[in-house]
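In this section we walk through a basic example: taking a raw amino acid sequence and producing a predicted 3D structure, encoded as discrete structure tokens. The instruction is simple. Fold the sequence below.
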Amino acid sequence: MKKLVITTVLFFVIFTLRSQNYSGFDGVITAGKTDASTLMEAYIAPAMEGMVYSMSGGWYHTAKTHNKLGFDITIAANTAFIPSKKELFSFSDLQFENTITASPGVTPTVGGDATPAEVTVVTRGGSATFTMPEGVKDDLPLNAMPAPVLQAGVGLLYDTDLMLRYTPKVGSNDVKGSLFGVGLKHNLMQYFGPLDNLPLNVSLLGAFSSMDVDYDLANNSSIEGDNQKAEFNLKSYTVQGLASLDFPFISVYGSLGYTGGKSELDVLGTYTVDYTGGIQSTTFTDPIAIALKPSSFRSSIGARLSLGFFKVFADYTLQEYNNLSAGVAFSFR
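The resulting token sequence is shown next.
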């Protein structure tokens, strides 16, 4: 699961410095505290929102629950596809405190691949010119935000499964992250008497995930300052009604439900900027703060192949950021 954290962080710090002149992440900070958050939110929103949706996938591959103390281990990959309409953003759609001009007037988000805009910002401290960060569409398979999953589930009383996702804080000296997720699945067929013997299973699912990543910017910024770091926090929840037809070798399953969450990115520390024509340097403290709350109704359909205790599954979800989940499970009833 270390790769999950590192991969995720790469998408959220892809906007770090790319040249000695103010550019990318450092360049955005020169726009001033309020405008830096505005620009960075417009750029990074598809990744922050996409992660909320991808983290909510892969919780189930059948509506059927385990027998008491039955268990499974699931390894899956979720990919939330970035909508094409979110590959670019226009500067004219944003509200700025300072005077900001851009050429061209549109620039790629993190999910785009167009040429980034050249931006000029004029503040009370002076002026600066920088290049917006590039999009990473060409580096994203299927232009989707990935979220690998390692999950364990166990059967409890009353036809209820408990599911857990957990990664302790891991990473390198510069990047550390942790993950926790918990879900419950309750089979409703037990309340319908003889119908409980049918291959049909109907369940309710509720699940929650939380991920925290800390990134030390001290070695990745050309702007002088102290205690420079970025903190990313994601919370994702989903509530779904599940149904499946479970036969000895194959299961067909689907769901209807709702997914939402909160995705936050804070760039902390002090950043001292020297503007062209400025009388003195300007120091910004905690220059970027972004909080997004994406949510969407969702519907899914999928299938699972059973080879004894070994399962192979895939499903597709329609929602704001459509999601593909696929993986394998080792299930012991």
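Looking at the output, two observations stand out. The CA atoms of residues 90 and 154 lie 48 Å apart. The chain has one domain: 2-332. In the next section we compare this with other chains.
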